[in-house]
Structures are given as structure tokens and as C-alpha cells.
Amino acid sequence: MANSNTKIAIVTGAGQGIGRAIARVLAERGAGRRDGTMNFGDIIYTKEDGIATITINRPKVLNAFRGETVDEMIAAFKDSHDA
Questions:
Q1: Phi, psi of 73, rounded to the nearest 5 degrees
Q2: Residue 82 pLDDT greater than 60, yes or no
Q3: 44-62 b/e with 16+ CB inside 10 Å = b?
Q4: Rounded Cα–Cα distance for residues 15 and 82 (Å)
Q5: Which of 26, 65, 69, 77 could pair with 42 in a Cys bridge, judged by C-beta atoms 3.0 to 4.6 Å apart?
Q6: How many CB atoms lie within 10 A of CB 16?
Q7: 3-state SS of 71-82?
Q8: pLDDT tens digits, residue range 10-67?
Q9: So what's the pLDDT on residue 60?
């Protein structure tokens, strides 16, 4: 695989198992890196070791989307892109 520092990959299931392994390989091969955390109400967004993870965190409503959820996800995607 070529250098990935100008690419963005969205890996679903990157929190565990094969999705996490794929995300780590991409990070090791130069996918954009930026570590840190942003605070949101409907999602949990973290960046660690070059991997951004977005988790919808609305268990009382079975993780149903609402306008705020979408706005937070857009902000997290933009932040991960600005790495």
C-alpha cells in the first residue's frame, strides 16, 4: 500500500476485532494522525494513535439519530479530516 497521508478512510467497527486491526494498519502506513478528544453530547469521539473513533451514545433511545447527532458527527468528521 502506498503512503496514505493524504487519504481518509472510514472503517466501521474500528473499535474492536478486524475493523480495529484495519484501522491500525492504515495508521501505521501513514493515514492522517491527530490525537486528542472532543466533547459532544450524542456521540463519543476520540483520536488515538492516528485512529479516530466515533460512537453514537444515546442508549436510552437505542442510538436513534436526531439533528444534534448528525451535527456532532459532521463536526467530528471535519475534525478528523483536518488532521
A1: -65, -40
A2: yes
A3: ebebeebbbbbeeeeeeee
A4: 21
A5: 69
A6: 8
A7: HHHHHHHHHHHC
A8: 666 666 677 777 777 776 665 544 445 567 889 888 887 777 888 888 989 999 999 9
A9: 93
Cβ–Cβ < 8 Å for 21, 67: no
Q: Are 7 and 31 in contact (CB under 8 A)?
A: yes
The pLDDT value given to residue 45: 87
The three cell numbers of residue 23 are: 484501522
DSSP codes of every residue in the chain: ----TT-----TTTTSHHHHHHHHHHHHTT-----EEE--SSEEEEEETTEEEEEE--GGGTT---HHHHHHHHHHHHHHHT-
Quick check: pTM over 0.70? no
